[in-house]
Amino acid sequence: MSIATDLLKANHIGIRDFKEHLSTKFLSEILVITERGTPVSVNIPYADILELLDILDELSDLETIETIQEARGEIHKGAKGRSASLLFDKIRSKQK
């Protein structure tokens, strides 16, 4: 999950500095905003939040959850796994 990884690696900036230097540079990257060193907010670019919402939407689908659970069981039994993108493509093609 690249968004979660990006969030963990994101630069931190104090809220005062963020306000004083607000620019498109800050708006185009994942950024953890802190207040006295404590994270209080996260700036996430629009495209990344759309991707995240799409993932959450797919995971709320019962058929998707059942397929993932079935695949995990097969992998646990020793079957080779497939990438998640192939799984989602397969489910999307069934829904058309």
Structure description:
With 96 residues, this protein is an alpha+beta fold. It folds into 2 domains: 2-45; 61-95, no CATH class. 61% of the residues lie in helices and 16% in strands. The protein has 6 helices and 3 strands, in the order αβααββααα. It has helices spanning 2-9, 15-20, 24-27, 46-59, 62-76, 84-95, and strands spanning 11-14, 31-35, 38-43. A 3-stranded mixed sheet has the order 1-2-3. Strand 2 (31-35) and strand 3 form a beta hairpin. The two termini are 26 Å apart. 1% of the residues are buried. The mean pLDDT is 78.
Helix content: 55-70%
What's the total number of strands?
3
Query: Terminal Cα separation, in Å?
Result: 26 Å
Stretches where pLDDT is under 50 for at least 5 consecutive residues are none
Proportion of residues in β-strands: 15-25%
Radius of gyration: 18 Å
Largest sheet: 3 strands, mixed
Oligomer: single chain
> What does the average pLDDT come to?
78
Tell me the overall shape. Answer: elongated
Structure classification: alpha+beta
Q: What is the ordering of alpha helices and beta strands? A: HEHHEEHHH
What is the tally of helical segments? 6
Can you list the strand order of the major beta sheet? 1-2-3
Instruction: Indicate how many domains the architecture comprises.
Output: 2
